[in-house]
């Protein structure tokens, strides 16, 4: 005897439910309140792929026995009827004809309705031992005597009330699955089959004027393990070659085929997110020149994201602020509207190639207090200025600057004072971006200078 390990059982059931998605994308574990020892499969529209419902449950039963997990399987029009038949029908494999749920449930015990133990005990004490004796009885006494669960479960089993199920994974928008006669183990074979699956999905995507923005590759191992890879794209696409390339890069990074066991017996490719992708003219190269550049840039971004990870690829994005350190941010590339590929507006004044994380203080010598620098010392090195351009005056953002006090930090003080920026070049040809903080007589009595950036 071994103690029940609820968390381990739940994790094992989830793995088994993920494996069962080889039959249908919609698999839902049973409600834990009634014992999480099985799962529902919505096989509507999928049974014909296996030659009918009989062959599907026979194949499922055979594979479960191979995993040393003998199961009882039932097919019915409602989840409640299927649960009841799987637990209490005399046959281990059974199919209930649609519309005959009442006849099939009648001889089964009241426990087949998935009721709480105390409700079942009360019904048996009152003489209601089978489902059949409940079917024709007036409902009002049951509603007054018992909780709402009794009538709800009865209606769900008979199809009078819908019973929503929570899939183990969100159902895909589009899905393609290939069952293999012989298991495969090599990455090249996985990529080739993925390309074929995407080619199959392309026809449906074209029909609906959409493209794939996110995909999921599922690799079903012979021993029941399932490996999944999530593929995120910058732009919607229908290109099988591009998707295959992204899968190849993802497989390289994740080493998903290194532990193939006895091989993969089925491969599924699902479009988990689709976005509009209207048809466009592609004959005139001069018309679509810019669009081609956008797609090429998106393909490069996709390749980098698969190799380095989604959070590792970032872009510069402009912010509505004229303060240099606030004017740009580095968010992750999400490609909502691919604004990262649009040309950015260039500032009227030159900006340094390298902006320091924080402006660094420097000692400056100038001919007049408000004049350009003639010499400055930065990081222990003295630079003689050969020429200077400026000033470019940038005022404080008074509408968002914090209240300044004697305890304000340096960055807050810098943001609260006017700056005069100069582009200076030393005698060695090096160019720097310096600014003088504060206006004489109005904001400060002793000007301070900072180095804020370096030009090429």
Question: What would you note in describing this structure?
Answer:
With 456 residues, this protein is an alpha+beta fold. It folds into three domains: 6-158, no CATH class; 174-306, DNA polymerase, Y-family, little finger domain (Dna Ligase, domain 1, 2-Layer Sandwich), CATH 3.30.1490.100; 354-454, no CATH class. 30% of the residues lie in helices and 26% in strands. Strands 11-12-13-14-15-16 form a six-stranded antiparallel barrel. The chain has a four-stranded antiparallel beta sheet with strand order 5-8-6-7, with helices on both faces. It has a two-stranded antiparallel sheet with strand order 1-2. Helix 3 (79-88) packs across helix 8 (148-158), helix 9 runs antiparallel to helix 10 (240-254) and helix 10 runs parallel beside helix 11. The longest helix is centred in the middle third of the chain and has 21 residues, at 187-207. The model is unreliable at 284-288, 337-346 and 403-414 (pLDDT under 50).
């Amino acid at each position: 005897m071994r103690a029940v390990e609820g968390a381990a059982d739940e994790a094992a059931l989830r793995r088994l439910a993920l494996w069962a998605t080889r039959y249908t994308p919609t698999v839902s574990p049973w409600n834990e309140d009634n014992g999480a020892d099985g799962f529902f499969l919505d096989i509507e529209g999928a049974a014909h792929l296996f030659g009918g419902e009989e062959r599907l449950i026979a194949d499922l039963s055979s594979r479960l026995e191979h995993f040393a997990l003998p199961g009882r399987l039932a097919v019915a029009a409602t989840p409640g009827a299927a649960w009841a038949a799987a637990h209490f029908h005399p046959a281990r494999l059974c199919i209930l004809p649609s519309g005959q749920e009442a006849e099939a449930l009648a001889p089964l015990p009241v426990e087949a309705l998935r009721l709480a133990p105390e409700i079942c005990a009360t019904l048996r004490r009152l003489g209601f031992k089978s489902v059949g004796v409940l079917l024709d009885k007036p409902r009002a006494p049951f509603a007054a005597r018992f909780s709402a669960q009794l009538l709800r479960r009865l209606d769900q089993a008979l199809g009078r009330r819908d019973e929503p199920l929570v899939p183990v994974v969100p159902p895909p928008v589009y899905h393609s699955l290939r069952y293999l006669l012989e298991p495969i183990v090599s990455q090249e074979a996985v990529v080739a089959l993925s390309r074929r699956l995407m080619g199959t999905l392309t026809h449906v995507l074209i029909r609906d004027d959409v493209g794939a923005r996110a995909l999921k590759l599922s690799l079903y191992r012979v021993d029941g393990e399932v490996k999944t890879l999530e593929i995120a794209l910058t732009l919607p696409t229908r290109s099988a070659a591009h998707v295959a390339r992204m899968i190849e890069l993802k497989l390289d990074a994740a080493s998903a085929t290194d532990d193939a066991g006895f091989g993969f017996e089925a491969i599924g490719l699902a479009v988990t997110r689709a976005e509009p992708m209207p048809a466009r003219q592609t004959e005139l190269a001069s018309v679509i020149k810019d669009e081609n550049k956008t797609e090429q840039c998106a393909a490069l971004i996709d390749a980098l994201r698969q190799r380095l990870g989604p959070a590792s690829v970032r872009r510069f994005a402009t912010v509505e602020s004229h303060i240099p350190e606030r004017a740009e941010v580095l968010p992750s590339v999400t490609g909502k509207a691919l604004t990262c590929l649009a040309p950015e507006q260039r500032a009227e004044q030159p900006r340094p190639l390298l902006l320091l994380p924080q402006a660094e203080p420097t000692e400056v010598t100038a001919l007049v207090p408000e004049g350009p620098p003639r010499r400055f010392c930065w990081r222990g090195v003295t630079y003689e200025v050969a020429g200077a351009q400026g000033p470019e005056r940038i005022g404080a953002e008074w509408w968002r600057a914090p209240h300044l006090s004697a305890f304000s930090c340096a960055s807050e003080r810098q943001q609260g004072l006017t700056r005069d920026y100069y582009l200076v070049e030393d005698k060695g040809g090096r160019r720097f971006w310096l600014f003088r903080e504060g206006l004489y007589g109005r904001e400060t009595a002793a000007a301070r200078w900072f180095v804020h950036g370096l030009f090429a």
